[in-house]
User: What shape does this take?
Amino acid sequence: MPYEVDKPEEQWRAELSPAEYRVLREAGTEPAFTGEYTDTRTTGVYECRACGAELFRSDTKFESHCGWPSFYDPKDSSAVELLEDRSYGMVRTEVRCARCGSHLGHVFSGEGYPTPTDQRYCINSISLRLVPDGD
Assistant: This one.
């Protein structure tokens, strides 16, 4: 699928830190409980660190105790792309930025999440940039 923001991998490598590139472009995962936004309570909009697309609002962020920032809904359903992920012998749903195709994390569905949608978008902090309200 063509993305609105489409760059050669060499350009992504030049623009992103090695850790950002590993997660955003190679579908890596940052270690649990180490991310910048895991415990953040600041209000604002979380953007894609690679392209600046608005992805999640802070009012949909909740404490899931999973080690990564968790949201129960994207800012707009068209902001993210959901793909089947069969890596590591599991079947999961990968979450990507719909604007640039960068890997953000995974979404999990089911009872037990204290959210209006029964979903947990488990997103790598390094995939995000928080723009606080008022900025």
Summary: The domain at 9-132 is CATH 2.170.150.20 (Metal Binding Protein, Guanine Nucleotide Exchange Factor; Chain A).
